[in-house]
Amino acid sequence: MSKKNNGTDLNRLSSNFKNNDPRRNLPSASILLEEPSIKEAISEFSHTFVMDAIHDALKWFRDNLKAGDSSPDISTVVDKVNFFLLQNQFQRLRSVVNATGVILHTNLGRAVLPERAVKTLSQLNHCCNLQIDLETGQRGKRHYMSEYLICKITGAESALIVNNNAAATFLILSALCKDKEVIISRGQLIEIGGSFRLPECINQSGAIMVEVGTTNKTHLRDYEQALTENTAIILRVNPSNYRIVGFTEDVPITDLVSLKKKQPLIIVDDQGCGTLINLEKYGLPKEPTVQESITAGADLVCFSGDKMIGGPQAGIIVGKKDLIQKIKKHPFTRMLRICKLTDMVLEQTLRLFLEPEKLIETNPTIRMLTIPAETLKRKAMNLKKRLDKEKLNLKIEVKECESTTGGGSYPATIIKSYGLILKSPKHNPDRLCYLLRQNEPPIIGRIKNDEVILDMRTLIKGDEEEIFKALIKIV
Ligand SMILES: *Cc1c(COP(=O)(O)O)cnc(C)c1O
């Protein structure tokens, strides 16, 4: 029926069906609230969530029923309420199985936190000594232990912890370079994602950006020629989420430091991924560590807490004491500070680095990075064997695949891994991935060459069992 000429038709219809229009016979919210299963839902999910679901369900029936349809009985309406309730609860923040093979997956919360770090959070139903000196009873230093630890580990004089590394860069520039020039290589003007673009960040901080060199090559003389009496900072940015390969050249910190002989300068290294240990012996490529940057003479180095450190979201600044003091006094420091949850988890994560030889057991990020491919192959084989016994309508293979670190660390580094390749005669790959995501807990895989891959490298204890149960349920 077209809208234009059906006015009279509709009027006639509605008067004909006035009494048996199912939309008029829907149960009211108050009647639904008397239903035992709805009462149960309220005690589990709260009155607010249930009322929202009731309104969604009633709206659904009003939108979808037509005059002349039979009225839904109350149990059908209750089912619909439960459907909307579950749909809503599905959005709640909770753990998922990361079978993507991306170790630091920003959409999945980056680093899986160390057991030991998470355990301390259970104390937070009490107060804590966040900012009290237990010796004197006076106001103490926030983040004292985390800052102490990061100095111990990196050999830096002083440290400051803020909300994330983007904030750290911004804070450094705001506090030390406002209305002054910061020199940066054109090869390092990065975008990190989530609309954090370095040029914009520099702009917002009040610093004046001076670009030097070209995308692929920047020389020491480029920096030298750009120096003016208004230059305050030379910023080096670690290409942690991309690589410029081929005919390239950039200037190492040690060389940049030589320019300090000419005039006062602050050399800042945005190291990004926060590599604290050398993982070459596990077959990973050499990445510059924070310690090396300090040793090379960087005045300030900043990096994330939730990349290679494997801790919570945080931005860590280490370096010269006088500079850190100056930054700490800037009003933005208060706005960008971390909370006690972060501080506790970070402190416990950093403690693990005091025993580097145990990190593979204690720190899930380091474990995922270094676990040998052969171990993963065995894992995949075992899981396949168990699934094969179930005679599922699903083709399962064990195949070599490629994990990545993700989250702006070890760019372009592919780590050999093994995964289960799933092919379902019933569901196409997108559908199969969808069904895995709908599982409880949701399982996140990836699709490559039209196949669903569940990568073994990023699984933690218990995840294989969840995959096993989910596949039996799904197919
Ligand atoms: C990841 C990264 C950032 C941003 O860090 P967040 O902690 O995510 O804010 C900044 N600079 C570099 C070089 C990075 O790798």
Walk me through the structure.
The structure is a single chain. This protein is α/β, with parallel strands linked by helices and 475 residues long. The chain has three domains: 18-89, no CATH class; 97-107 and 368-474, Aspartate Aminotransferase, domain 1, CATH 3.90.1150; 115-362, Aspartate Aminotransferase, domain 2, CATH 3.40.640. The chain contains 20 helices and 15 strands. The chain has a seven-stranded mixed β-sheet, with helices on both faces. The chain has a four-stranded antiparallel β-sheet with strand order 11-12-15-14. Helix 11 links the parallel strand 7 (231-237) and strand 8. The longest helix is centred in the N-terminal third of the chain and has 18 residues, at 47-64. The chain is globular and about 90 Å long. Pyridoxal-5'-phosphate (PLP) binds next to helix 8 and strand 8.
In short:
It contains 20 helices and 15 strands. It has 475 residues and is α/β, with parallel strands linked by helices. It has 3 domains: 72 residues, no CATH class; 118 residues, Aspartate Aminotransferase, domain 1, CATH 3.90.1150.110; 248 residues, Type I PLP-dependent aspartate aminotransferase-like (Major domain) (Aspartate Aminotransferase, domain 2, 3-Layer(aba) Sandwich), CATH 3.40.640.
Largest sheet: 7 strands, mixed
Q: How far do the termini sit from each other?
A: 42 Å
> From the structure provided, what is the oligomeric state, counting identical versus distinct chains?
single chain
Looking at the structure, what is the overall shape?
globular
Query: CATH H level of the largest domain: which superfamily?
Result: Type I PLP-dependent aspartate aminotransferase-like (Major domain)
- Helix percentage: 40-55%
Strand order of the largest sheet: 2-10-9-8-7-3-6
Identify the CATH class of the largest domain.
Alpha Beta
> Which cofactor or ligand species appear?
pyridoxal-5'-phosphate
Strand content: 15-25%
